[in-house]
């Protein structure tokens, strides 16, 4: 075969594309997964979709496999006594199972150039937590399952999101105490 510059260019371009795709996939892509979270000091046993029994100890979160559509969960206490048997619907690619029905807060953080985050938060609604008002209208959640967030409890917000021309936002789900700590550290009024 002759030295064909077009073929050589095509092979170089394909190689660069494959290399860029591999870098993105292994280092930059946000992983999508489902978590079972236990912020309490108790230990729970659970079965998802009548599968094998799993254990989640105090303060732990565990990745689980869920299918889109209807899923079921049976939750047992540390003595393996049935606490509840429930079903939930999975529609998105990441979610959180609140095994203990504790309080969580879904917070929206704003990004953009020339963003005045304090004045933006003052313009939003307030939420009352333990008798104190919190700006930014964090959404309270204590049901079994949610998928209304971008970052899970085990992830942090991105420090900077590049290429934003206007104000955008990302939501994150927090355990109650983690949200209170985040709010105290991040916001000053």
Task: Tell me what you see in this structure.
22% of the residues lie in helices and 35% in strands. With 189 residues, the protein is an alpha+beta fold. The radius of gyration is 22 Å and the shape is flat.
Q: Could you report the average pLDDT, rounded to the nearest whole number?
A: 87
Beta-strand content: 25-35%
N-to-C span: 71 Å
Describe the sheet with the most strands.
4 strands, mixed
Structural class: alpha+beta
Total number of strands: 13
Element-by-element helix/strand order:
HEEEEEEEEHEEEEEH
Q: Give me the Rg, rounded.
A: 22 Å
Kindly report the spatial arrangement of strands forming the biggest sheet.
4-1-7-12
Rough outline: flat
> How many DSSP helices?
3
Helix fraction, binned, reads: 10-25%
Spans of at least 5 consecutive residues whose pLDDT stays below 50 are none
Structural topology:
Layout: H1 5-28, E1 34-37, E2 44-48, E3 54-56, E4 61-64, E5 69-76, E6 82-90, E7 95-98, E8 104-111, H2 117-123, E9 126-129, E10 132-135, E11 139-141, E12 145-146, E13 168-175, H3 176-186
Parallel strand pairs: 1-7
Antiparallel strand pairs: 1-4, 2-3, 2-5, 5-6, 7-12, 8-11, 8-13, 9-10
